[in-house]
Design a protein that fits this description.
heterodimer; A: alpha+beta; 4 domains; 9-stranded mixed sheet; 9-stranded antiparallel sheet; 45% helix; B: 346 residues; alpha+beta; 4-stranded antiparallel sheet
């Protein structure tokens, strides 16, 4: 599956789509059908549509069809308008992007065209600070070295500048030639991987030779990136329109459904079944009554021979009468309160990070309740628990440990002396520190040098080296690097970069000393990736000890090594490396293999130890959240000992007497299996003891476990409250989340880097920390916060309130609908089970949409306990976790309450308004006002705190009920003309109301 | 007055500038969820006082309602069975036979003094005016507007007769109650006032003064009352009363008023025409004479309900007080929290 892009060749250009970007979901024509189709995919909407259609049959409808059509159309219109507005905004921004003017080359001359007219194969010119309109393969830049800098923040959220280089075959082309260039690029079909581009390019004669030149992601300019610090660049469009890497990765993420939503859906289903049962029972009872009793009642005048469908009429009438059991307003109400919860999170001053000026943000407005029900938190370590502010603290060079006393190697006199004395080991060590990286030094006009690094570790190393007088001054593209050392300038040529991957766990570069011409391999990486590569006979014990020692202090260690290469060896290897790099299949694997061929018999120079401080308030936050019954798993790419140290520091695990750590390790399947079995056994035995148990597992063992012993591990996961998983890959993180999810736990994943994205997307709730590793995690997350400690407030305050509020709102919505429905059902028993509606259409519609919906919305302001009380007694969260406020039994309580209230309202009404007072319209209004009075008091009783807004909503609504009905009572054509005035004059009406509400006491 | 205005504008602009300088929202009590709120806690004292208060309010209302209800003097005379001669076996055939005179004479004894006005009702039991098929079978437009005489939608199955629209159409009008009563007090004629028995609003706005009955009761099956075609609907008060459908199968409808005080042990002789068919469905017919109070007719329900609720409140207040005295609980004691109790139990 390949794509061949012919540069500057018009005849092939129509094979692929043009560069018109379209993020819109709808077009003008398909909006209505498509939007309706989407909306009707929801069961509730289908249900309401069916009911509304049935109501059009006047023989069976108890009320005016408008009472359902009205709200239904309003609800549909509201969500359709919202969709249309969003889509319109997308259309506008697309249009802007599409109509932006860009320069392309056409027929050998530059032309100014709209971005949407770019075709695959066109050469596009971009100036400094312009946005890249489509995915390009770089062919030329203004810089003589053939590099340019891009900012990829819009793509991956990383804020550093990245260097992009032109392919070797295009080096040296002047801008005249770039207009006429012809050739072919062979590249994969469009995909969404923004880190890979395995392609190659071949230029046609007369342009240089027709050698195949490999292309990587470093030779590309991807759509939405910005060109920085480079006057101009040009490139060949390879992917356009929605087929760009950005366009392909845009997909709509699967909507997350909260536990509460699932429960509400389930309860809705149950109510629906109940409704069907009512329909069947009352429908048949109605038919029986009709045949035995109603036929004798001459005034009803039933025909003796009726069409067959008459038998359906009464059941269908009951279906329509009972249709209000499922409240039409619940979706709108829930959407409203959920967006309020999200707003409250966005607005909250206490989780606003002053330091970095980042407010908390709820990107997903629909899942706040889940925050209150979290059972497991899976957290990344670096950048999440720690600050990800790397500081070089200690090092071990050639067996000597520096920085032990002061805790800061940079102030260690011995090290400073060694540097001053030109100690060869130390100089080598520092040279590797300064050179073996992908850092870009940027010289400001004032002469100071700052570094742009993708990795915080590299940044720390380069800065430390520069403090120790080995200063990386400049780096031009991928060839020349300049180092200042004690006023000497040393030039190096960087020949190759053997990039870091999480599998290799190391990186190397090949350099040649410009003076001596000697070639060196410089490597750095994790200890277990570097130490085994030491040359035969080197004593590495001191290094191993140093690594252990540093790890116990919670420091991150890196192992540095080097080797001199002979020219022949390098040339031989270089050929292989080039080949591997231009491979189109399995490139990554092939490259890794070739790299391994060079990385051996290293001279280990030493160990660097970098400190990553814990963020403020992390131990307290973890302490409180664990008190509230949340289990913590720490998933980190770091090594075991460092991870354990950090875990101890932040209260995740306790040291020996109080807690116990169980290790699962082993290299082979059998070892891992035995180890797992042993840990599981210990867990089972000691699970009753008040001892804090935690297990530790590393990525290797985890891989075996997840493929082979999933059941045993699942059991372990259920038993263990704390776990530390180290050396895990991003996909393993996601797998662990999935595993916990499969055990029906509510999971929250929190992380800050790109490697946490999959875990964040997989978990029920993803929280991203907008940190130093870019915004990638924060973008993918449902919630983004500035600091780990804000998680406490997010869960205990926002999550808990949201849960409580939604629990009340949803059950109340059913309660009030059931109440009115039960009154209708009870009325059918005194109206010959014929399906007469006691209430008129206007009242029914207004009851559901207006009278009972508005007061309860103010539950978003309700606080059952003060924020302080909750944080002081975090155990209270157990109620939310266990779902104590919304479950079948609480729902049954509300159900019973509505039945009880309905019976009482109905009985009081028909007894107080018996005999000469039993006029239909009056009795109906008495029953309705009885329900309204009851509503107002039930809401008042259920709320815990009252602000003036709640007061206004409840009693304002109550007053509005009377005002509206009095108004309707003045319309002569209305059924209830004068009714409300008559009632309000009767003392018996007010006396009836008063007794109706007192029943809620009992 | 311009000074404060200028100040306010300055405030607004500086406020705007502040907001735009930082991406952050200006905070308010609302956005921070810190609006001042009152937080009532249901302490034992509160609960007990509320119950006491409700009891104190309810018992007097209950007593007043019961007294009002007891003041009402009511004579209820069921006559459907009694007004069929004892030798008739098929009551249905008897009532449907229009050739027989169905005059019937009833004697009522006044149990207590009755002050005028005395309301005369007829009461039907087991009559479903609220039946879905019945209650909808009318057309309000036709009743109100002479020009809409042909508007008979919803009137099934009493819409047209020989292709002509029936006015008033529908089952309700067709089945209007047609028993009639005349009264004699001791030996004098007792006049009964049949004006103003319907709602004024109905006469003025629901039933047109230029709408006259047409084609009414012309079918093979006579339902109930026949209407005089020269009197407009707005003056056919019996029809208007009947068309205010009752919500319950037992109901009373006003027949007329008597403006004479009756003394205890007076006898009243009622001569009635027993026309209306309740025999096919075991319905009952009664004649009711009743006085009225501020609360309406005789109805003990509200009084009893109030006394019950009031009594229950007193009882609960008492019970809670006892409980509170015997086993007081400190308010806000953390030891009562479930997790604290559990750990103590271990």
């Amino acid at each position: 599956m390949k794509r061949f892009v012919y540069i500057n060749d018009e005849s092939y250009q129509n094979d692929y789509c043009d560069n018109q970007i379209s993020n819109t979901k709808y077009t003008l024509w398909n909006f209505l059908p498509k939007n309706l189709w989407e909306q009707f995919r929801r069961f509730m909407n289908q249900y309401f549509l069916l009911i509304a259609c049935l109501q059009l049959w006047s023989l069976i409808t108890p009320v005016n069809p408008a009472s359902t059509w009205g709200p239904l159309i309003v609800i549909f219109a509201v969500s359709a308008t919202k969709e249309a507005w969003d889509d319109y905004n997308r259309y506008i921004s697309d249009k802007q992007a599409n109509e932006k003017k860009v320069w392309i080359v056409k027929n050998g001359a530059r032309k100014h065209i709209q971005a949407q007219d770019i075709r695959v194969g066109n050469i596009v010119w971009i100036r400094e600070n312009e946005e890249v309109p489509c995915d390009l393969v770089l062919t030329g830049t203004s810089e003589p070295q053939g590099i340019c800098h891009v900012e990829t923040a819009a793509l991956d959220g990383e804020i550093d500048l990245k260097t992009r280089v032109i392919p070797t075959t295009c080096i040296g082309l002047d801008s005249e030639q770039l207009h006429k260039i012809k050739g072919v690029i062979e590249c994969p079909i469009p995909d969404k991987d923004i880190r890979r581009f395995d392609a190659n390019i071949r230029l046609f004669p007369p342009f240089i030779d027709n050698d195949i030149c490999p292309l990587t992601i470093n030779n590309t300019l991807l759509q939405s990136c910005y060109l920085r610090n480079t006057e101009w660049a040009c490139g060949v469009a390879v992917y356009t329109g929605n087929e760009t890497k950005l366009g392909m990765s845009r997909g709509v993420p699967e909507p997350k459904l909260t536990a509460m939503d699932a429960m509400i859906d389930k309860l809705t289903g149950a109510i629906f079944l109940f409704q069907l049962a009512v329909v069947v029972v009352l429908g048949s009872a109605g038919n029986v009554w009709k045949d035995t009793e109603a036929r004798k009642q001459w005034y009803v005048k039933y025909d003796d021979d009726e069409p067959w469908y008459q038998i359906l009429v009464i059941p269908l009438r009951f279906e329509l009468l009972c249709s209000i059991m499922i409240p039409i307003s619940i979706k709108v109400s829930l959407d409203f309160v959920k967006s309020m919860y999200a707003k409250f999170i966005d607005w909250d001053e206490e989780i606003y990070d002053q330091e970095t000026d980042t407010p908390a943000h709820a990107a997903n407005t629909a899942i706040s309740e889940d925050l209150g029900q979290v059972e497991y938190i899976l957290t990344d370590k670096t950048g999440t628990l720690t600050e990800n502010k790397m500081i070089f603290r200690r090092c071990c060079i050639a067996g000597t440990l520096y920085g032990n006393e002061s805790g800061d190697a940079l102030k260690d006199i011995e090290l400073l002396n060694a540097v001053a004395d030109n100690s060869p080991h130390v100089i080598k060590f520092l040279t590797v520190m300064a050179l073996c990286n992908t850092v870009i030094p940027i010289k400001s006009p004032s002469g100071t040098i700052s570094y742009k690094a993708q990795s915080q570790d590299e940044d720390a190393l380069v800065n430390a080296a520069s403090n120790l007088h080995v200063v990386l001054v400049s780096k031009n593209g991928n060839n020349a690097a300049e180092i200042h050392f004690n006023r000497r300038v040393i030039q190096y040529e960087i020949l190759d970069i053997l990039e870091f991957t999480s599998d290799r766990k190391r990186m190397s570069i090949v350099i040649s000393d410009s003076q001596s011409g000697k070639i060196f391999l410089l490597s750095k990486g994790a200890d277990e990736a570097i130490l085994p590569l030491a040359y035969c006979g080197q004593q590495i014990k001191t290094f191993v000890d140093a690594v252990d020692k540093y790890a116990q202090l919670g420091l991150r260690t890196l192992c540095l090594g080097w080797r001199e290469l002979s020219l022949e060896e390098y040339l031989e290897w270089s050929r292989l490396f080039k080949e591997a790099n231009s491979a189109l299949v399995d490139r990554e694997w092939k490259v890794a293999e070739v790299c391994q061929k060079l990385e051996h018999t290293l001279d280990i120079l030493g160990i660097s130890a970098i400190e990553d401080r814990l963020q403020d308030g992390v131990p307290e936050t973890i302490e409180i959240l664990r008190q509230s019954g949340i289990n913590f798993w720490m998933l980190t790419g770091d090594k075991q000992s460092t991870a354990i140290q950090i875990a101890l520091l932040c209260n995740l695990i306790s040291s020996e007497p109080k807690g116990q750590l169980l290790y699962i390790n082993g290299k082979t399947e059998d070892e891992v299996a035995r180890s797992l079995e042993r840990v599981l056994l210990t867990m089972r035995i000691t699970s009753s003891e008040p001892k804090e148990l935690a297990f530790v597992v590393d990525g290797w063992a985890l891989e075996i476990i997840l493929t082979r012993y999933k059941e045993a591990f699942t059991e372990l996961a259920v038993l263990s409250k704390t776990a530390i998983c180290c050396r895990v890959t991003p996909s393993q993180k996601a797998q662990l989340v999935k595993l916990l999810k499969s055990c029906d736990y509510r999971t929250l994943a929190i992380g800050d880097g790109g490697n946490d994205v999959r875990m964040i997307q997989q978990a029920h709730i993803g929280v991203g920390i907008s940190g130093r590793e870019g915004l990638q995690a924060a973008r993918a997350a449902d919630y983004s916060i500035g600091k780990f400690r804000f998680l406490k407030r997010l869960i205990l305050v926002h999550g808990r309130y949201s849960y409580n509020r939604t629990a009340f709102l949803s059950q109340y919505s059913f309660y009030k609908s059931l109440l009115i429905c039960f009154i209708q059902i009870l009325f059918s028993f005194v109206s010959g089970i014929a399906g007469t509606s006691l209430f008129n259409s206007v009242s029914l519609m207004a009851y559901n949409v207006f009278y009972t919906s508005i007061p309860v919305l103010t539950t978003v302001l309700d606080k059952d306990l003060s924020e302080k009380t909750v944080t002081q007694n975090p155990e209270i969260l157990l109620y939310c976790q266990a779902g104590r406020l919304l479950n079948p039994s609480t729902f049954a309580g509300w159900f019973g309450r509505s039945l009880y209230h309905a019976i009482v309202v109905f009985l009081i009404t028909i007894h107080a308004y018996a005999n000469e007072k039993s006029e239909m319209e009056e009795l109906s209004m008495v029953a309705l006002s009885g329900s309204i009075w009851l509503q107002a008091f039930v809401v008042t009783l259920e709320m815990s705190s009252f602000t003036f807004l709640q007061f206004l909503a409840i009693w304002g609504n109550f007053a509005a009920f009377y005002v509206i009905n009095l108004c309707i009572s003045t319309i002569p054509t209305a059924g209830m003309y004068t009714i409300m005035f008559r009632l309000c004059r009767q003392p018996s009406y007010w006396i009836t109301m008063l007794v109706s509400i007192t029943i809620m006491f009992f | 007055h311009s000074c404060p205005m200028v100040l306010r504008i300055a405030e607004l602009t500086s406020f705007g500038a502040g907001a735009s300088a930082s991406t952050h929202q200006p905070n308010s009590k609302f956005t921070q969820q810190e609006l001042p709120a009152c937080k009532p806690i249901l302490t034992p004292k509160w609960v007990i006082s509320v119950f006491l208060l409700v009891g104190v309010i309810f018992v007097p209302i209950g007593v007043a309602s019961l007294l009002a209800s007891n003041k009402v003097v009511e004579i209820v005379d069921r006559y459907d069975d009694a007004c069929v001669p004892s030798n008739v076996t098929n009551k249905l055939a008897y009532i449907q036979n229009s050739t027989i005179s169905k005059t019937c004479r009833r004697t009522l004894k006044v149990p207590k003094d009755m002050k005028q006005p005395i309301f005369v009702y007829y009461q039907l039991n087991n009559f479903y005016q609220n039946h879905r098929r019945y209650v909808k079978s009318r057309n309000d437009q036709q009743l109100r507007d002479a020009s809409k005489a042909n508007e008979t939608t919803l009137c099934d199955p009493e819409k047209t007769r020989d292709g002509m629209a029936i006015v008033p159409c529908g089952l309700i009008a067709w089945s209007t109650f047609n028993d009639t009563y005349t009264f004699q007090h001791n030996t004098n004629n007792l006049s009964i006032d049949k004006t103003d028995i319907s709602w004024k609003s109905d006469r003025d706005h629901k039933f047109g003064s230029d709408v006259f009955p047409k084609n009414f009761q012309k079918g093979p099956l006579i339902g109930g009352k026949t209407l005089n075609e020269s009197i407009p609907l707005s003056e056919q008060e019996d029809l208007i009363v009947w068309m205010r459908t009752a919500a319950l199968p037992t109901f009373r409808k006003l027949y007329g008023r008597i403006y004479v005080d009756l003394k205890e042990n007076d006898t009243i002789t009622v001569t009635l025409d027993n026309n209306y068919n309740t025999y096919s469905f075991d319905g009952k017919k009664s004649l009711v004479l009743s006085t009225s109070t501020w609360l309406g007719g005789k109805n003990d329900f509200l009084g009893l309900a109030y006394l019950t609720v009031g009594g229950l409140c007193f009882f609960l207040a008492f019970a809670f007080t006892l409980l509170y005295l015997i086993k007081p609980r400190k308010l806000g004691d953390n030891n009562y929290l479930s997790w604290n109790r559990n750990s103590a139990g271990h």
